[in-house]
Q: What sequence folds into this?
């Protein structure tokens, strides 16, 4: 009431003072000052209202600096309230006006950008938050120098983002920079950094340091803010977490409740901070196996998080609308689902508790669908899905248990849906984005603008990457500033497309995934689709045939992971050419058969009819495994790599990112009518003698940049089977590839490659060194993300093109993924450094088979079997022939090859037609 009276008095004074010069400005100043006071006392609702009012008045006065400042302050207070929609409205309004009317180095703009960073941090989009924090930090450094308090704030903000991303070393580096400045200034900033360092120590399991930092921060905050400020409540909650981590339950619960009381006094009962306190209390009870108290606390957390929700019954689910923070709500639903699961296991296996767990998991996954379409940065979306793996794991586990109890098939369908939703979201989004643009009727001018912005962003990302490697601080800041501007333009353009073209928005954000029925309707009778989901304690296997569907659980995940790691090392290391090693053969034979028994034997044995084609959707470490190298039988014959019972001898294999991706990818049009080939086999400068003398037995594609005689032979051989353009030696340039690659049905690249596990977008292929001023003769993965390829098939006959960093939920970040992302329907890739001579033999045979209209997977399989049949004992080792695997569409590419019989049939056809015409003429 007091606030309203003051406000109305100020507005009344303003309304009667229009005869006084600058009355609006005076009133605006008073409203702004009142807003500052309200914010200081944690009255954020009132503060946001006052700042918005002052901003409008400053706008009437064209006082743009104060306008930006007021709307930024309004957005800041809405963030404190977790009212993110109102926050971004005010912040964007301030930023847009500031960009039009203020100098780009204006401190009010940097303040605005900093708060927008807080907004993105608040909704969990950490990658985009870093972009804004970095922009603000660069400006503070330019204007005020490196020891300015705002610079410390910038370092602290960026550290918090890296901490939330799980990049703890980077976070610690930035916190230390902030701490160095803030130790000399003291005050609120020092308390904040100490508090945040406590969080980081907790994540790194340094609980004693965590407690020390939290207590230091609490003491400083009390000196500055008194004992009843919400910040003090947060400090007490943090101290409770530290005591819980140290095993001091009495102290933990005491501080949780003390913090909750302060927050309730400041915020009432509906606020995300209240939710967090109840969540901490619930986690405390759950850790102590007090499940009823834990569930009651989680329900209180839901009540505090959702404005219109009032039901205290723990079995009642909340709505997802009108929540203060989706990120906090996700944590609550996850904790509640896990608690119900534990109740089911430890308190009598009551079905109602398992159903409750399943329903909470299901609701949490619906929330993830909403969140991932709200995030802007791809990296943030990927991180969200990676962190959500435990939710998908829990949902699949509870669905499978409900099926075992009830035998209701719907739970198997649910389990498969959950597995599908956990996979390759970014790849699906890209595919849907391309389809949406095609059907939405977006003008070419806007699509061109989008493409140009992507190229600009990519260019400066590369410049920034190189500048960081060279530690060139000037170029780093310049690149970051350009990136900020181009990303803002890109985000604005995408928002415009989504707003003005509703069909585009609808198609792009379609969250439906393939069902079991969809898969069955789209596979052939002789095909089986097998999808894996790697949970924390179990591997789930979904086996879908034309008229059959089974689900299996394999519980020895740790053992499997270790076996696959060992097996992969056996595959990627070439055997020595001196003599056959029986010990290595026995190890290979044993582990290849054991893995098969664990992940494929039972699924295949349960089928009514054995297929000849397997489509595999791997997960986790299985992404690195060529399934065809597993053994279906234990061999009792004399040691020989040629005679082992490889699965390749029984099945054709292809791989996919998910079932949904498979079906959508198969329906894509490539816009290429003619079946033609574009192939490259570059020459590299210099060839040291030790490499030149290795001949057919030594050169690997991916060692040093030496000439690859096998690659040259490979491309020459392909030219016998398909029309096209074939670039060998010095003319096999990156420029030629970029200019021509969108017009060919088949792309073939025989060259050196290099995967980059730490920075997957910088994995690359090496073209011939042409010294072109516009190209660097190196094709990076990130460049493919901005290209539009129309190929039916890309064959990446280079080093480790299917290898790279494994990201939970997305798969392997590889060059092959880049080609698929750019629009190729299928990609043949290598899982390790391919052998130059063996690769040439395989590819020659593969293209001969392909030209005979064999399916791609069949052509690849037959080339491997032919290689095995003709190989020596040592060269039959899977290292030589199994690196190549197929992802995507496996159907044949219709050949345009014309042979003698084709000419014969053509001539006979013409003669028959002439004869008929002659007879018709005679009759007439």
A:
């Amino acid at each position: 009431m007091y606030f309203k009276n003051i406000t109305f008095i100020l507005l009344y004074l303003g309304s009667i003072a229009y005869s006084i010069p600058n009355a609006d400005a005076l009133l605006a100043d008073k409203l702004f000052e009142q807003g500052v006071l309200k914010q200081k006392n944690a009255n954020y609702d009132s503060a946001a209202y006052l700042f918005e009012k002052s901003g409008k008045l400053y706008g009437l006065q064209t006082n743009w600096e104060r306008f930006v400042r007021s709307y930024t302050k309004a957005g800041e207070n809405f963030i404190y309230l977790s009212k993110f929609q109102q926050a971004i409205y005010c912040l964007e309004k301030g930023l847009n006006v500031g960009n039009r009317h203020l100098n780009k180095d204006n401190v009010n703009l940097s303040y605005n950008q900093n708060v927008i960073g807080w907004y993105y941090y608040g909704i969990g989009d950490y990658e985009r938050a870093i972009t804004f924090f970095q922009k603000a930090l660069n400006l503070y450094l330019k204007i005020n120098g490196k020891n300015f308090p705002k610079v410390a704030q910038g370092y602290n903000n960026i550290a918090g983002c890296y901490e939330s991303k799980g990049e703890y070393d980077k976070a610690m580096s930035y916190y230390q920079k902030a701490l160095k400045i803030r130790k000399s200034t003291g005050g609120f900033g020092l308390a904040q950094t100490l508090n945040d360092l406590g969080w980081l120590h907790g994540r790194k399991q340094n609980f004693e340091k965590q407690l020390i930092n939290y207590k230091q921060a609490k003491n400083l905050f009390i000196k500055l803010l008194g004992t009843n400020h919400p910040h003090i409540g947060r400090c007490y909650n943090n101290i409770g977490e530290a005591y819980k981590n140290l095993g001091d339950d009495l102290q933990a619960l005491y501080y949780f409740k003390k913090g909750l009381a302060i927050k309730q006094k400041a915020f009432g009962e509906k606020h995300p901070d209240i939710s967090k306190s109840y969540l901490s209390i619930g986690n405390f009870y759950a850790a102590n196996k007090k499940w009823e108290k834990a569930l009651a606390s989680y329900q209180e957390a839901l009540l505090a998080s959702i404005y219109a929700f009032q039901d205290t019954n723990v079995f009642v689910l909340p709505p997802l609308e009108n929540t203060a923070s989706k990120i906090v709500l996700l944590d609550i639903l996850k904790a509640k689902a896990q608690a119900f699961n534990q109740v089911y296991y430890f308190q009598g296996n009551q079905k109602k508790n398992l159903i409750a767990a399943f329903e909470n998991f299901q609701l949490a996954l619906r929330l993830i669908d909403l969140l991932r379409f709200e995030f802007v940065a791809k990296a943030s979306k990927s991180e969200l899905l990676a962190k959500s793996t435990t939710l998908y794991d829990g949902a699949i586990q509870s669905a499978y248990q409900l099926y075992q109890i009830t035998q209701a098939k719907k739970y198997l369908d649910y389990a498969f849906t959950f597995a599908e939703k956990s996979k390759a979201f970014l790849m699906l989004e890209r595919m849907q984005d391309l389809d949406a643009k095609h059907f939405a009727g977006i003008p070419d001018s806007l699509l061109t603008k989008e493409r140009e912005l992507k190229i600009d962003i990519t260019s400066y990302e590369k410049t920034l990457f190189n500048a960081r490697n060279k530690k060139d601080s000037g170029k780093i800041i310049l690149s970051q500033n350009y990136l900020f501007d181009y990303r803002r333009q890109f985000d604005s353009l995408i928002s415009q497309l989504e707003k003005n073209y509703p069909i585009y928005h609808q198609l792009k954000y379609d969250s439906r995934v393939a069902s079991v029925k969809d898969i069955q309707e789209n596979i052939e009778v002789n095909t089986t689709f097998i999808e894996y989901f790697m949970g924390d304690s179990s591997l789930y296997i979904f086996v879908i045939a034309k008229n059959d569907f089974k689900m299996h659980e394999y519980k020895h995940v740790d053992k499997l992971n270790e076996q696959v790691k060992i097996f992969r090392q056996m595959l990627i290391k070439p055997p020595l050419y001196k003599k056959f090693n029986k010990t290595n053969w026995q190890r290979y034979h044993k582990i290849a058969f054991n893995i098969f028994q664990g992940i494929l034997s039972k699924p295949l044995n349960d089928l009514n009819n054995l297929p000849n084609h397997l489509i595999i959707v791997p997960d986790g470490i299985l992404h690195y495994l060529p399934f065809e190298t597993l053994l279906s039988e234990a061999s009792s014959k004399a040691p020989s790599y040629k005679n082992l019972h490889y699965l390749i001898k029984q099945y054709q294999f292809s791989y996919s990112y998910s079932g949904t991706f498979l079906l959508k990818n198969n329906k894509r049009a490539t816009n290429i009518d003619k079946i033609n080939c574009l192939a490259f086999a570059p020459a590299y400068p210099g060839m040291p003698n030790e490499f030149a003398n290795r001949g057919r037995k030594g050169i690997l594609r991916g060692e040093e940049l030496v000439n690859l005689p096998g690659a040259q032979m490979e491309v020459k051989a392909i030219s016998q089977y398909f029309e096209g353009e074939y670039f060998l030696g010095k003319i096999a340039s990156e420029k030629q590839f970029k200019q021509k690659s969108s017009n060919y049905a088949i792309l073939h690249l025989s060259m050196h490659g290099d995967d980059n596990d730490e920075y997957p977008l910088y994995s690359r292929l090496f073209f011939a060194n042409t010294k072109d001023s516009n190209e660097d003769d190196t094709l990076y993965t990130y460049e493919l993300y901005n290209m539009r390829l129309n190929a039916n098939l890309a064959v990446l006959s280079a080093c480790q093109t299917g290898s790279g960093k494994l990201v939970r939920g997305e798969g392997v970040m590889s060059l092959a993924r880049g080609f698929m992302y750019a629009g190729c329907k299928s990609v043949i890739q290598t899982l390790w450094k391919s052998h130059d001579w063996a690769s040439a033999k395989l590819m020659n045979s593969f293209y001969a088979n392909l030209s005979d209209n064999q399916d791609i997977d069949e052509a690849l399989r037959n080339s491997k079997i032919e290689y095995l049949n003709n190989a020596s004992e040592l060269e039959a080792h899977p290292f030589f022939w199994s690196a190549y695997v197929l992802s995507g569409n496996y159907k044949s590419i219709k050949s345009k090859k014309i042979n003698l019989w084709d000419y014969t049939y053509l001539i006979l056809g013409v003669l028959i037609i002439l004869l008929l015409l002659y007879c018709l003429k005679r009759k007439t």
Observations:
- The radius of gyration is 32 Å.
- Residues 289 and 342 are 9 Å apart (CA to CA).
